[in-house]
TrEMBL record:
It is an enzyme of class 1 (oxidoreductase). GO terms for molecular function: (3S)-3-hydroxyacyl-CoA dehydrogenase (NAD+) activity; NAD+ binding. This is 3-hydroxyacyl-CoA dehydrogenase. Belongs to the 3-hydroxyacyl-CoA dehydrogenase family.
Amino acid sequence: MSISRVSIVGAGLMGAGIAQSIAAAPALVAKKIQVTLVDVTQDRLDNGKKIIHQSLARIAKKKFDGDAAKSGEFVDSILSSIAFKTDAGAAASESDLIIEAIVENLDAKQKLFRDLDTRAPKHAIFASNTSSLPIAEIAKSTLSRRDRFAGLHFFNPVPQMKLVEIVRTKELSQDVFVGLKQLVKDMDKVGVECKDTPGFIVNRLLVPYMLEAVRLVERGDATKEDVDIAMKLGAGYPMGPFELADYVGLDTTQFITEGWYKAGKGLQGKELVQPPESLVKLVGEGKLGRKSGAGFYDYGKK
Ligand code: 3HC
């Protein structure tokens, strides 16, 4: 199984991070991998380019100890190796692997893959970066590609986070799984295998933990500031649960929990993912976390 042309559809934070991480990985540069980032408008692509530029500049500053010339060269060489396109079908027709990182909506994902299924070569692998939707449901939109349809779940910030969950449906072929595992390894990340269950591994544990932190504060048992300090200093987490919820986005957290809660049946411990009142209230007020300038904490105006 040879993956030498990869398209990432969706140029938001996750898609841009995935494109960057593939384009910058030395093992994949050596294999002359071709990376294309796709979104529906030029504006969105420009925003994706900006996200990649900022992240690479941050890495370069450290790597080259503030040497502006070397940093600039590093950033430009990686950025210029990525193709930016607005036509997903055209990109798919020249891809061995297509990774989807668009809006977290089943209909939108199914529609995208239904279209791409008619354009991509027969051998091409499809992968979704969904954090909460069942991979098998998304894969239903393709006609004959269910053995080549997997979950590749990355974590924010993608260039920094080492983990990728490789989600294996019952129909995924062993060859494709092995090929994806190798790609993840070549990205200098670590792949873990998980079944197609709600939240896979990380979110199945992380989301109830964040929600329980919210409930703990709602009960008046501690302040959010003290909960964050406690989990950083007492459990060694890099961020406390409120800082993390603001970082992930409160709308994203609410969306994931509501989806699981409503889908309900078959989910053990359903009450663990019931969206807490204060989370719902903040989202209703447009306080979505860092990206909107306020969430559980205030980050100053955006
Ligand atoms: N691009 C490149 N590098 C980045 C970066 C980015 N976007 N963001 C952070 N970094 C790098 C910094 O350059 C720095 O590098 P260095 O160690 O070489 O100096 C390093 O990360 C640490 O960054 P900072 O010093 O600025 O800040 P922190 O030490 O606080 O680390 C953090 C920031 C990496 C975000 C850390 O706080 C962390 O790991 N937080 C937890 C993140 C987490 O749990 N993510 C998972 C969320 S769940 C998810 O994504 C699933 C989804 O489905 C919802």
